[in-house]
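pasting for ref
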Amino acid sequence: MTMSDPLADMCTRIRNAVGARHEHVRIPASKVKAAVADVLQREGYISGYTEESEGARRYLRLRLNYRPDRRAMLAGIRRVSRPGLRVYVDKGEIPRVYGGLGIAIMSTSQGVMSGQEAWRQRIGGEVLCYVW
């Protein structure tokens, strides 16, 4: 099966796992997905991730983070830039998600980072997804 947008698949798997209140979610691994998972961990939306192998295939296993009342830390995730419509922003146009309550995950020349990190470093790039 060929997938035209693996990052959108990652967002959908996370969204579905949070909706079903799963402890973990397993997604096919890639460098960009690992970088996005790293940003999610730094921002507190997931408690961690590990890389595991099953034969020749590699997977990322994300541990979802929940509050004491069993509500997920990650309320929503949405893909912004996609293969048919890439969304690039300049350093002054970095979007704020829900008035600063969420984050924008961006791919920049310095690597994948949150929108706030990109704003501090004064660099723009491609907006991959919004997380809140």
